[in-house]
Amino acid sequence: MTQRRGSDFAGLSVAIVTPFKDGEVDYARLKEQIEFQVEAGTRCIVPVGTTGESPTLTHDEHERVISEVIQCVAGRAKVMAGTGSNSTAEALRLTQRAAKEGADATLQVAPYYNKPTQEGFFQHFKAVAQAVDIPVCVYNIPGRSGKEIEVGTIQRLAELPGITMVKEATGKLDQCSAIVGTTDLTVLSGDDSLTLPMMAVGAEGVVSVAGNLVPSDMIRLVNAAASGDLDVARQMHHQLFGLCNNMLGLATNPIPVKAAMRMVGRDTGELRLPMTPLDAEAEAKLQQTILAYGLASAAR
User: Fold this and answer.
1) Where do the domains of the chain lie?
2) Residues that bind pyruvate, according to the entry (predicted)?
3) Does residue 244 surpass a pLDDT of 80?
Protein backbone atom coordinates (compact mmCIF):
# COMPACT_ATOMS: atom_id res chain seq x y z
CA MET A 1 0.00 0.00 0.00
CA THR A 2 1.30 3.46 -0.92
CA GLN A 3 2.54 5.50 2.02
CA ARG A 4 0.68 8.77 1.78
CA ARG A 5 1.83 12.17 2.86
CA GLY A 6 -0.27 13.24 5.81
CA SER A 7 -0.92 9.66 6.94
CA ASP A 8 0.08 10.61 10.49
CA PHE A 9 -3.29 12.42 10.57
CA ALA A 10 -5.20 9.25 9.67
CA GLY A 11 -8.03 8.31 12.00
CA LEU A 12 -10.43 10.55 13.88
CA SER A 13 -10.07 14.30 13.86
CA VAL A 14 -12.83 16.26 15.60
CA ALA A 15 -13.88 19.72 14.47
CA ILE A 16 -14.69 21.08 17.91
CA VAL A 17 -17.32 23.72 18.62
CA THR A 18 -16.42 27.04 20.21
CA PRO A 19 -18.30 27.50 23.51
CA PHE A 20 -19.76 30.91 24.22
CA LYS A 21 -21.12 32.38 27.45
CA ASP A 22 -22.61 35.86 27.73
CA GLY A 23 -21.25 36.71 24.30
CA GLU A 24 -17.67 35.73 25.08
CA VAL A 25 -15.63 32.62 24.35
CA ASP A 26 -15.95 30.26 27.33
CA TYR A 27 -12.39 28.99 27.70
CA ALA A 28 -13.16 26.82 30.71
CA ARG A 29 -15.74 24.88 28.66
CA LEU A 30 -13.29 24.73 25.77
CA LYS A 31 -10.76 22.98 27.98
CA GLU A 32 -13.42 20.53 29.18
CA GLN A 33 -14.14 19.62 25.57
CA ILE A 34 -10.48 19.03 24.87
CA GLU A 35 -10.11 16.74 27.89
CA PHE A 36 -13.16 14.77 26.73
CA GLN A 37 -11.60 14.29 23.30
CA VAL A 38 -8.15 13.39 24.60
CA GLU A 39 -9.59 10.84 27.02
CA ALA A 40 -11.57 9.25 24.18
CA GLY A 41 -8.39 8.84 22.14
CA THR A 42 -9.17 11.35 19.37
CA ARG A 43 -6.15 11.57 17.07
CA CYS A 44 -6.45 15.24 16.13
CA ILE A 45 -8.42 18.24 17.38
CA VAL A 46 -9.48 20.86 14.84
CA PRO A 47 -10.35 24.23 16.41
CA VAL A 48 -12.01 27.22 14.74
CA GLY A 49 -13.29 25.55 11.62
CA THR A 50 -16.85 26.07 10.46
CA THR A 51 -18.07 23.96 13.39
CA GLY A 52 -16.17 26.36 15.64
CA GLU A 53 -18.12 29.34 14.23
CA SER A 54 -14.91 30.87 12.89
CA PRO A 55 -16.77 33.43 10.72
CA THR A 56 -18.06 35.18 13.85
CA LEU A 57 -14.84 35.16 15.87
CA THR A 58 -12.73 38.29 16.04
CA HIS A 59 -9.13 37.90 14.89
CA ASP A 60 -7.96 38.08 18.51
CA GLU A 61 -10.45 35.40 19.57
CA HIS A 62 -9.50 33.20 16.62
CA GLU A 63 -5.84 33.32 17.55
CA ARG A 64 -6.45 32.85 21.26
CA VAL A 65 -8.71 29.81 20.78
CA ILE A 66 -5.99 28.12 18.73
CA SER A 67 -3.36 29.01 21.33
CA GLU A 68 -5.51 27.75 24.22
CA VAL A 69 -6.23 24.48 22.43
CA ILE A 70 -2.53 23.88 21.68
CA GLN A 71 -1.56 24.60 25.28
CA CYS A 72 -4.31 22.42 26.73
CA VAL A 73 -3.66 19.50 24.37
CA ALA A 74 0.03 19.69 25.29
CA GLY A 75 1.10 17.08 22.75
CA ARG A 76 -1.49 14.47 23.78
CA ALA A 77 -3.14 14.75 20.37
CA LYS A 78 -2.44 16.62 17.18
CA VAL A 79 -3.90 20.07 16.53
CA MET A 80 -4.96 21.08 13.02
CA ALA A 81 -5.80 24.76 13.25
CA GLY A 82 -8.53 26.22 11.10
CA THR A 83 -6.75 29.22 9.63
CA GLY A 84 -8.28 29.56 6.18
CA SER A 85 -9.80 32.71 4.74
CA ASN A 86 -11.11 34.13 1.50
CA SER A 87 -8.27 36.65 1.79
CA THR A 88 -4.89 35.10 1.08
CA ALA A 89 -3.14 37.72 3.19
CA GLU A 90 -5.38 36.93 6.18
CA ALA A 91 -4.93 33.18 5.71
CA LEU A 92 -1.16 33.71 5.70
CA ARG A 93 -1.24 35.78 8.86
CA LEU A 94 -3.48 33.35 10.77
CA THR A 95 -1.50 30.32 9.61
CA GLN A 96 1.89 31.78 10.44
CA ARG A 97 0.62 32.67 13.90
CA ALA A 98 -0.78 29.16 14.45
CA ALA A 99 2.49 27.59 13.29
CA LYS A 100 4.43 29.81 15.69
CA GLU A 101 2.10 28.73 18.52
CA GLY A 102 2.86 25.07 17.79
CA ALA A 103 -0.02 23.82 15.63
CA ASP A 104 0.73 20.48 13.96
CA ALA A 105 -1.11 21.33 10.73
CA THR A 106 -3.46 23.85 9.19
CA LEU A 107 -6.92 23.33 7.72
CA GLN A 108 -7.34 25.69 4.75
CA VAL A 109 -10.87 26.12 3.48
CA ALA A 110 -11.43 27.03 -0.15
CA PRO A 111 -11.68 30.82 -0.39
CA TYR A 112 -15.38 31.57 -0.07
CA TYR A 113 -17.66 34.20 -1.60
CA ASN A 114 -15.13 35.68 -4.03
CA LYS A 115 -15.14 32.37 -6.01
CA PRO A 116 -11.65 32.35 -7.50
CA THR A 117 -10.73 30.57 -10.70
CA GLN A 118 -8.96 27.20 -10.46
CA GLU A 119 -5.69 29.09 -10.98
CA GLY A 120 -6.70 31.38 -8.12
CA PHE A 121 -7.28 28.36 -5.86
CA PHE A 122 -3.87 26.96 -6.80
CA GLN A 123 -2.02 30.22 -6.16
CA HIS A 124 -3.84 30.78 -2.86
CA PHE A 125 -2.97 27.37 -1.39
CA LYS A 126 0.54 27.53 -2.85
CA ALA A 127 1.16 30.84 -1.07
CA VAL A 128 0.05 29.37 2.26
CA ALA A 129 2.01 26.13 1.83
CA GLN A 130 5.20 28.01 1.00
CA ALA A 131 4.85 30.39 3.95
CA VAL A 132 4.87 27.78 6.76
CA ASP A 133 6.61 24.52 7.62
CA ILE A 134 3.51 22.72 8.93
CA PRO A 135 1.38 20.45 6.71
CA VAL A 136 -1.58 21.96 4.87
CA CYS A 137 -4.95 20.23 4.58
CA VAL A 138 -6.96 21.63 1.67
CA TYR A 139 -10.66 21.80 2.59
CA ASN A 140 -12.95 21.31 -0.39
CA ILE A 141 -16.53 22.20 0.58
CA PRO A 142 -18.41 23.88 -2.28
CA GLY A 143 -21.67 23.89 -0.31
CA ARG A 144 -20.11 26.46 2.02
CA SER A 145 -17.55 28.16 -0.19
CA GLY A 146 -19.63 28.49 -3.35
CA LYS A 147 -17.15 26.82 -5.70
CA GLU A 148 -15.47 23.45 -6.00
CA ILE A 149 -11.75 22.84 -6.13
CA GLU A 150 -11.51 20.54 -9.14
CA VAL A 151 -9.55 17.29 -9.17
CA GLY A 152 -7.07 18.72 -11.67
CA THR A 153 -6.28 21.57 -9.30
CA ILE A 154 -5.82 19.18 -6.38
CA GLN A 155 -3.46 17.12 -8.56
CA ARG A 156 -1.40 20.25 -9.16
CA LEU A 157 -1.44 21.09 -5.46
CA ALA A 158 -0.25 17.57 -4.66
CA GLU A 159 3.04 18.44 -6.35
CA LEU A 160 3.75 20.99 -3.60
CA PRO A 161 5.55 19.38 -0.63
CA GLY A 162 3.70 21.41 1.98
CA ILE A 163 0.27 20.18 0.93
CA THR A 164 -0.30 16.70 2.37
CA MET A 165 -4.05 16.28 2.94
CA VAL A 166 -7.49 16.99 1.54
CA LYS A 167 -10.64 17.27 3.63
CA GLU A 168 -13.13 16.11 1.02
CA ALA A 169 -16.66 17.45 1.55
CA THR A 170 -18.08 17.60 -1.96
CA GLY A 171 -20.29 14.61 -1.18
CA LYS A 172 -19.00 12.87 -4.30
CA LEU A 173 -17.38 9.47 -3.93
CA ASP A 174 -15.94 9.79 -7.44
CA GLN A 175 -14.04 12.89 -6.35
CA CYS A 176 -12.50 10.98 -3.45
CA SER A 177 -11.63 8.05 -5.74
CA ALA A 178 -9.94 10.33 -8.27
CA ILE A 179 -7.81 12.07 -5.63
CA VAL A 180 -6.76 8.81 -3.98
CA GLY A 181 -6.04 7.18 -7.32
CA THR A 182 -3.91 9.96 -8.80
CA THR A 183 -2.08 11.57 -5.84
CA ASP A 184 -0.26 10.56 -2.67
CA LEU A 185 -2.32 12.92 -0.51
CA THR A 186 -4.14 11.67 2.57
CA VAL A 187 -7.89 12.13 2.09
CA LEU A 188 -10.09 12.75 5.12
CA SER A 189 -13.86 12.62 4.87
CA GLY A 190 -15.59 15.92 5.50
CA ASP A 191 -18.98 14.23 5.97
CA ASP A 192 -19.55 11.91 8.92
CA SER A 193 -22.09 9.77 7.08
CA LEU A 194 -19.68 9.17 4.17
CA THR A 195 -16.74 8.07 6.31
CA LEU A 196 -17.04 4.34 5.59
CA PRO A 197 -17.76 4.69 1.84
CA MET A 198 -14.82 7.06 1.45
CA MET A 199 -12.48 4.86 3.45
CA ALA A 200 -13.55 1.93 1.27
CA VAL A 201 -11.97 3.70 -1.72
CA GLY A 202 -8.87 4.87 0.11
CA ALA A 203 -9.61 7.77 2.46
CA GLU A 204 -7.86 7.38 5.80
CA GLY A 205 -10.16 9.04 8.29
CA VAL A 206 -12.64 11.80 8.96
CA VAL A 207 -12.78 15.35 10.28
CA SER A 208 -15.92 14.77 12.29
CA VAL A 209 -18.74 16.87 13.70
CA ALA A 210 -20.52 13.96 15.40
CA GLY A 211 -17.24 13.26 17.18
CA ASN A 212 -18.10 16.16 19.49
CA LEU A 213 -20.75 13.82 20.93
CA VAL A 214 -19.53 10.26 20.35
CA PRO A 215 -15.78 10.23 19.68
CA SER A 216 -15.36 6.65 20.90
CA ASP A 217 -17.95 5.37 18.43
CA MET A 218 -16.38 7.31 15.58
CA ILE A 219 -12.97 5.89 16.51
CA ARG A 220 -14.40 2.37 16.46
CA LEU A 221 -15.81 2.97 12.97
CA VAL A 222 -12.58 4.41 11.59
CA ASN A 223 -10.38 1.76 13.18
CA ALA A 224 -12.57 -1.06 11.88
CA ALA A 225 -12.56 0.39 8.38
CA ALA A 226 -8.79 0.88 8.45
CA SER A 227 -8.13 -2.68 9.64
CA GLY A 228 -10.49 -4.24 7.09
CA ASP A 229 -13.02 -5.44 9.67
CA LEU A 230 -15.97 -4.81 7.38
CA ASP A 231 -18.59 -6.38 9.66
CA VAL A 232 -17.80 -4.02 12.54
CA ALA A 233 -17.33 -1.07 10.18
CA ARG A 234 -20.75 -1.63 8.65
CA GLN A 235 -22.32 -2.07 12.06
CA MET A 236 -20.86 1.23 13.27
CA HIS A 237 -21.74 2.99 10.02
CA HIS A 238 -25.40 2.05 10.33
CA GLN A 239 -25.43 2.81 14.06
CA LEU A 240 -23.98 6.28 13.48
CA PHE A 241 -25.82 7.04 10.26
CA GLY A 242 -29.12 7.96 11.90
CA LEU A 243 -27.41 10.23 14.43
CA CYS A 244 -25.27 11.98 11.82
CA ASN A 245 -27.93 12.26 9.15
CA ASN A 246 -30.85 13.23 11.37
CA MET A 247 -28.91 15.61 13.60
CA LEU A 248 -26.97 17.46 10.93
CA GLY A 249 -29.96 17.56 8.60
CA LEU A 250 -31.99 19.69 10.99
CA ALA A 251 -30.16 22.98 10.46
CA THR A 252 -26.86 24.48 9.43
CA ASN A 253 -23.85 23.19 11.35
CA PRO A 254 -23.08 23.86 14.21
CA ILE A 255 -26.64 24.72 15.31
CA PRO A 256 -27.80 21.11 15.84
CA VAL A 257 -24.58 19.76 17.31
CA LYS A 258 -24.50 22.53 19.92
CA ALA A 259 -28.11 21.71 20.81
CA ALA A 260 -27.24 18.01 21.02
CA MET A 261 -24.29 18.69 23.30
CA ARG A 262 -26.56 20.59 25.64
CA MET A 263 -29.03 17.69 25.62
CA VAL A 264 -26.39 15.19 26.71
CA GLY A 265 -25.02 17.42 29.47
CA ARG A 266 -22.05 18.90 27.60
CA ASP A 267 -23.46 22.41 27.23
CA THR A 268 -21.34 24.75 25.11
CA GLY A 269 -23.54 27.78 25.53
CA GLU A 270 -25.12 30.03 22.99
CA LEU A 271 -24.60 30.55 19.29
CA ARG A 272 -23.46 33.79 17.73
CA LEU A 273 -25.60 35.58 15.20
CA PRO A 274 -26.38 34.94 12.43
CA MET A 275 -26.63 31.40 13.86
CA THR A 276 -29.87 30.98 15.80
CA PRO A 277 -31.18 28.10 17.97
CA LEU A 278 -33.38 25.27 16.73
CA ASP A 279 -37.12 25.87 16.88
CA ALA A 280 -39.32 23.72 19.13
CA GLU A 281 -40.17 21.20 16.39
CA ALA A 282 -36.53 20.66 15.48
CA GLU A 283 -35.57 20.40 19.15
CA ALA A 284 -38.13 17.63 19.61
CA LYS A 285 -36.81 15.76 16.56
CA LEU A 286 -33.26 16.09 17.82
CA GLN A 287 -34.20 14.79 21.25
CA GLN A 288 -35.82 11.75 19.63
CA THR A 289 -32.63 11.15 17.64
CA ILE A 290 -30.48 11.44 20.77
CA LEU A 291 -32.68 9.02 22.69
CA ALA A 292 -32.89 6.58 19.80
CA TYR A 293 -29.11 6.47 19.65
CA GLY A 294 -28.96 5.59 23.34
CA LEU A 295 -27.41 8.78 24.64
CA ALA A 296 -28.78 10.06 27.94
CA SER A 297 -30.75 13.20 27.22
CA ALA A 298 -30.75 16.17 29.56
CA ALA A 299 -33.21 18.08 27.35
CA ARG A 300 -36.37 19.35 28.98
Assistant:
1) 7-228
2) 51, 207
3) yes
